[in-house]
Each structure stands twice: as structure tokens, then as C-alpha cells.
Amino acid sequence: MSVSASLASNSRNRLACASCTRRKVKCSKTVPCSNCVRRGEQDACVLGSTETDSSTVVDSRASPQHRSPSDAARQLHVLHRRIAELEAEVQRATSGTALQHNPPPAEDEETSHEVLHLDPTLNPPESITHRTDVQNNRLDSSDAVMKDAASILEFLAWGRHKDPEYHSTVSPEATLTAGTASGDVWDKGSHVIESAIDPFGDCSQLSVIQLLLPSPQQVWQLVQYHEECLLWYHGSFFAPSFRDQLEAFYADYGGMIDRPGVNLQWVALLFSIMTGSLVCSPPATLQSWGFRDPERRTLSKRWFGAVLTCLNRADYTANLSILSCQAIATNTISAHLLGFSSSQSIQLAAAVRIAQSLGLHRLGSETTRNTIDREIGRRVWCQLCSQDWFGIPFSESYLINPLYSTSEPPLNCHDQDLLPLPVDTPTITSYCRFLREVASIIPQLQDDLMVRNTAYTRYEQVLAWDARLRTLVTTERPMFLSHVPIDPKWPCWIPWARRALAISSGHKIIMIHRSFLSDSFINPAFAFTRRTCLAASKTIIKEYKCVVDEDGPTLWIHQAFSVAASVILLLDVLHRDPNDRESAAHKQLAESVIAILHNHRNSMIAVRGIKLLGALLAEVSKVASTSGAPNQGRKRRRHDDTFGSSNADSPRNSRSGYKFDLPEFVKAFSVGTASSQSAGSSRSAGQHQSQMDVQVEDPQESDDVGEPGGEDAGHIIEPSLGYSFNTVGLDGANSFENLLYLVNHDCFSVP
Fold first, then answer.
1. Where do Low complexity bias regions lie (predicted)?
2. Does the structure show a pLDDT above 70 at 320?
3. Region of poorest pLDDT, from 45-59, 224-238, 248-262
4. Above 90 in pLDDT, residue 494?
């Protein structure tokens, strides 16, 4: 059957309206149908499109080459739909009685106009039924946003949506509102400019990819920096083997990627290594290599995209190789900073399945592989496990089940000899080995929470795993990551690893408590969560300030987790009396983070973080401007009760004419309406740089996550709960954080 005949046949056979088809309910097969009349949606009742139509919309938007085979067939499709809609108009004209009893809402007229002009090649309009569902379920949606407020706001800063309204994701018409089907959220203005001046457009040709390679000297500089300063953080490739392969690439193939025998999956790994160095290295180091800032911005995104291009050209999902897993895992270090978090999460899922197909999850001691191959496989699998398990706070699920992952951890060894060394000896795998131990707690916590039926028993699990993680990070970490003098023979990355662990640990404790964090601001039963997360947030920001003073690489967790910490502090401010002493201190800390982020405008995390924190600061200013006299809140607050001014009936709320609405804020910010609010608040950050050295620890009110570089490294002051929960958990300890996996957008969605 021809395409046009098929489309015509489908149009004749579709008797159910579009709304009933989407809802999967029985339709009376009249226009308007009884269901639409009952819902007051007569004007929207048209003969519906099937799943084939929806997929056509998605395909035509995501990949132009998959549109209808001919313009004539497409136009015929449109004409059939137009005829059906005109028939519906005639039917409505004869249904005056029904319309009198069910007058359509005013906004339906505009929506009906949009439906009449629907074209598969155009942006689909917002679904009317989706809008109605949102209105009917507004309370449920608000509750979901409140429950996961901190995570949702954090992901917004990273350019990733965490939408508690599942129904908004099941309809392509409701979600595809931009010119691309990418789920990443980026700075559209800058990408439009880049697209307008791009002389090459599509970078899928190998000839264009070849143009992206710098000189051999610069390639070696980028690779060497990654090996010495970044590989300790992810351990996704084996440096000696890669150096040998790079030498052969230039000696045997002249550095040409299109030569026969050149493995494009290896080229993808090369670009991922270079991208990490270009994105993470300090500006002074980049300038010494000959890269200036404008070129850095262009090349970093192009190189990231070249990784995906090479993988696709190599058909990596069919030609399975550990090289693709290495390239994707290495790409993570730059993906979040560049704004490609969402697409990176999808690539990681593919890498996990490829790794499982290659048997990397079953590399036990009895494996017959040679030592180097076995070690490379274990290192890659270790990193994939960590990234998957740290992503649980976003997806509330995980791909790698620890029960079926029997691979042993990588050896704690040097690359030169691969001889096992004591855990307290720093090697290229030491940090990754320990971080995997931290990550392994998260799926266990998730499983335990899912089988509990009450908030009480779930909170018991949070406290128990908090205790386990706290013990792991404070008493079981390798010696070189604790407070001991640095041996001159140790690698240069030891101080950076200590900072990274402190920041990551602070963030993990926030993630362990995330499901009770919003409630902790209003319910004194969760006071431990509030104090713990505030202390962790202060520690993260304190460590971030120290990182800024060091000449080390920029890791994505520095900015991402500092934004998350600032979000926690500002949410706390919004639940306190504006005149409270802690409110001023927490606000100053958030402003200091904004001031630092202004120095990293090449980072999409920094750009979004500035907007998000600025919008929250604007909300704080609104609350403060409508509050009562300056000293009233302080007089009413009890020293030993952090909830004295945070409940719904607190003096702040009773005197204030403005109340912060978190669900509405999230919705407004996610569609960009909050960006204008951020401008004034972001500018105010520069005026408060002199206040950056705020005292961040208050042992009387919070449990401190100690600084690895200080005398109290790993020491945590236990707060008094005052409630019947067992704070020491099951094993007599207490805990830290869970690493949020973040995410952004596909590289070549915009050329």
C-alpha cells in the first residue's frame, strides 16, 4: 500500500476523538463526543491521531530525514486532518443544546485555534487535556515538588528537569516545545549565536572532525595533563596503553582519523580525554598551551560532540568495545560543565549495557584475561558503577544491581607494575576505589526506603545509612585522604582529592536526607536532618572557597555541589524569620558562592547556578521587604528551637504579606520566567564579596562535617535529636552524602 493510501485509510478508520484516544477511554464516536462535552472540552474534540501520528511528530522534529517520503503525501495527510476538523466544526454548529449547558472556557477558543492549524512539521501545541489534568492534580503536584524540593532545584541549576508530574512526559505534544527533542536545558541565546556564525554546520563528517584536532604537541600536552591531574578522579582508561596507542596514531597513520585501520572508538576516547583537559584545566595552563578563552568555548563543545560523532560512525552499539565505555565514562568530567548532562546520562546507560555484554561485571580473581586487560575492565566497571549509583537521586532507580556485579575492585597499584599495594598508599586508582565504596551505599538505601511503608520506618533507614556512610568516610578512608602531612613523594593530586572528598561527602549526606529535607524545615521531628544538611552545606561552601585559591583543575562537583549547598541555605532562610541571625549568615554564604561562580562563565553549571540562586535571593528579598519590625523575629526565637520561626504560624508568616510558594517557583524558573528575577540578586553578590569569610560552623546547632585539611578532619559533632529516633543507627556510627548525578543536553542538537 502506498504512503498516501495508508494515510488516507488511517484517517477514514479513526472514529475516536483525539482526547479519548490519549486518555485511552471509550469514545461515543460523535463530534463532540460525550466525554468531551462532560469535561467542557467541546471545542477541542476532533477526530484523533493515533500513536503513529505522535511518533511522526517526534520523528519529524528530532530527525528531518525521517519525515514523510514526499511533500505530496505530507500535504495529503494535513488535508485529511483538516477535513476531519471542518466536519467537527459543522457538527458543533448543530449541537447548540449541548454547548448551552456546557459553555467552553475562554481559553479553549485559543487552544481550538491552535489545533486547527496543527502541522506535523511545526511545533505541536500544548495538549488541552494535559492542561486540564494539571489543574485537577495541582495539589498532588505541589506535594511532589515540596517533597523533593532540594533535588529539583539542584537539577534545574545543572540544566536537568526532575518533573514530579509523570503525566506531562507521556505525551510528545506536551513535552516537545522547542526546536529540538533534546532533554537538556541550555543557555539558548549563546547557542543561537554560535549556530548563526558556524561555518561548518553539521560536524558529522570525518573531514570536519579532522579539522578539530590541534597540533600533535598540543594533543600530547592535553593528554599528559589529563593523566597527571584528572585521571585520579575517574580512572576510566589505562595511561600507559593509551600513550602507546597515541604514538602509533601519529607514527603509523600520520594523525589522520580517516585512514584505514584507525578505530573511531579510540578516536572518541582521544577527544574525550582532550575535552576533559580543555574544560577542567586552569586558564593559565591553557594559555601556556596556546588556547585562549573564545577558542576554548568553541573547541570544548565541538570536541565533546566529536566523541559522540565518532562513536556513532563506528556503530558502537553494534560493534561492542571497551573503548566506547572508556570514552563515555571519561566524558562525564566535562559533560556537566558544558551543559550536556542529560545526553551524558543516556550515553552512560548505553555504556553500562555494553560493559555488561563484554562481561566487565564478572571480572573475578579467576578470570583468564591477561592482567592489563582485566585491570582496565575493572577500572571502567568501577567508574560506571559509581556514576550509576550516584545518579539514583535523579531517577530514583539504578541500572547496575549490586547483586549481579561480581567484579572485584581495581587493584590499588601503580600503572608501571600493577603490583598490589596497601590501601594507605596513594595510587591512580585509590580515590576511585574509595568513592565506589561510598556509592555502593546509595542503592542499598534506595532499596530499604522502597520497602518501608511509613515515614517513621523510612526515617529510621535514613539514619541508619547516614551512620554507615559517616563511619565509612571518617574511619575507613585511606590515610592519605585524612589529616596527615603530605609526603613530597605523593602525587600532586592529593590535596585536590581531599577537597573533592570533603565536598562530595557533604553532598552525599544531603542526598541521603533528601526525602525528608523539605519536611525538616517545618516538622521538628526531622530536626536532625535540618541541622545535618545545613552543616554539610556550610562545609561544602567552605571547601569550595579553598578550592578557588588552589591552582588545581576545575571539577564539576565543585560548582554543582556548591550550588546545591546554597539552595539548602536559602531554603532555610525562607523558612526562618528574615531578621534571624542565621538568616543573614546563610544569605551571605549563598551570595559568596554567586560571586565565585561569576568567575566561571564558561561553565553552564555556573551560569544556571547564578540564575537559580539569584531567583531564590529575590524571593528572600520579597519576604524580608514584607516582614515586620527588625527586632521582632529575634525576640520571639528560642535559642534551642530552630523551628521557633519556621512553622506556618510563625511571626514571619503572620506578619508577612508575601509567602514563598516553592512549587510555583520551580515551575516559573523551569520555563525561564525566574531568570529576570536573578539579575538584581546576582548583581548584589558582588557587593557582598567582603562578607565571604562568614563563620560557617556553629557547633552548638549543627553537626559539622570536618575539613580533611584541618585538625578536626572527619570529626562530627553529634546534635541532640530530642526525639525517639535512634541517631546512632544500626552500627553505632553516623554519616555523610550521596552524589547527585547530573545532566544537560545533546551536543549537536544545535549545530
1. 49-60, 676-691
2. yes
3. 45-59
4. yes
Task: Please say if the pLDDT value at position 137 is more than 60.
Answer: no
Q: Average per-residue pLDDT in the chain?
A: 73
CA 133 to chain centre: 27
Are 222 and 278 in contact by the 8 Å Cβ rule? The answer is: yes
User: Is there a domain that residue 620 lies in?
Assistant: yes
Which cell numbers hold the place of 180?
529540538
Question: Distance between CA atoms of 652 and 644, rounded to whole angstroms?
Answer: 10
Residues 598 and 495 occupy one common structural domain = yes
Domain ranges, residue 55: 1-116
Question: What is the C-alpha R_g of the chain?
Answer: 28
**How many domains does the chain fold into?**
3
Instruction: Render pLDDT for 56-98 as a digit per residue (tens, 0 to 9).
Output: 333 333 333 444 445 566 666 666 666 776 777 666 665 544 4
**Which residue type is seen at 227?**
E
Domain co-membership, 546 together with 693: yes
DSSP 487: P
In-domain check, residue 195: no
Give how far Cα 60 sits from Cα of 47, 53, 124, 345, 465, Å.
21, 10, 11, 24, 47
Query: When comparing pLDDT for 238 and 622, which is higher?
Result: 238
For residue 393, say if its preceding peptide bond is cis, omega within 30 degrees of 0: no
Compute the half-sphere exposure of residue 478: CA atoms within 13 Å on the CB side of its CA.
22
**CB atoms < 10 A from the CB of 739, how many?**
25
pLDDT digits (tens, 9 = 90+) for 583-592: 889 999 999 9
Measured at the CA of 163, the angle between CA 158 and CA 166, to 5 degrees, comes to 150
> Could you give phi then psi for residue 371, rounded to 5 degrees?
-60, -45
List, in sequence order, the alpha helices (H) in 264-370.
Answer: 264-280, 283-289, 293-313, 322-338, 341-357
Instruction: Give mean pLDDT, residues 385-404.
Output: 90
Same domain, 608 and 541: yes
The four Cα atoms 505, 510, 512, 513 give a dihedral, to 10 degrees, of 150
State which amino acid sits at residue 462.
Answer: V
Q: Encode 264-300: b = buried (16+ Cβ within 10 Å), e = exposed.
A: bbbbbbbbbbbbbbbbbbeeebbeebebeeeebbebb
285 and 344 housed in the same domain: yes
- Residue 47's φ and ψ, nearest 5 degrees, are -60, 125
